[in-house]
Amino acid sequence: MFLDFHQTTQKISSVIGKKVSYTDIPAQVMREGLLASGLPVASAESMLVYFSAVKNGKMFAPTSAVEDILGRPPRSFDEWARDNAAALKGVA
Fold it and tell me: Are 4 and 80 in contact (CB under 8 A)?
């Protein structure tokens, strides 16, 4: 199942018991921030392409790659969030 940024922050909020929100940052502002933090241009551009795809609902359909490589089914985002709630509380 594909989740957008608002859905993931809602799920994180639910598991940590604290409101987390998503703020859309214009691509140029994000690019400038990434480059200012020392990220190489190619990495910054790659992240911008990814974030644009998520924001515009253009992600690829799920595949069997995780299970093929790891030999187990992938975890859901809900499972991941629950398993990482303590760490997420520290940054929220």
Answer: no
Domain that holds residue 85: 5-91
How many domains does the chain divide into?
A: 1
- 3-class SS at 78? helix
Residue pointed to by tokens 């995780």: 66
Looking at the chain, the whole-number percentage of residues with pLDDT higher than 90 is 77
18 touches 85 (CB < 8 A): no
pTM: 0.74
CATH number at 24 reads 3.90.25.10
Q: Find tokens 């991941």 and name the residue.
A: 80
Q: CA 67 to CA 80: how far, in whole Å?
A: 16
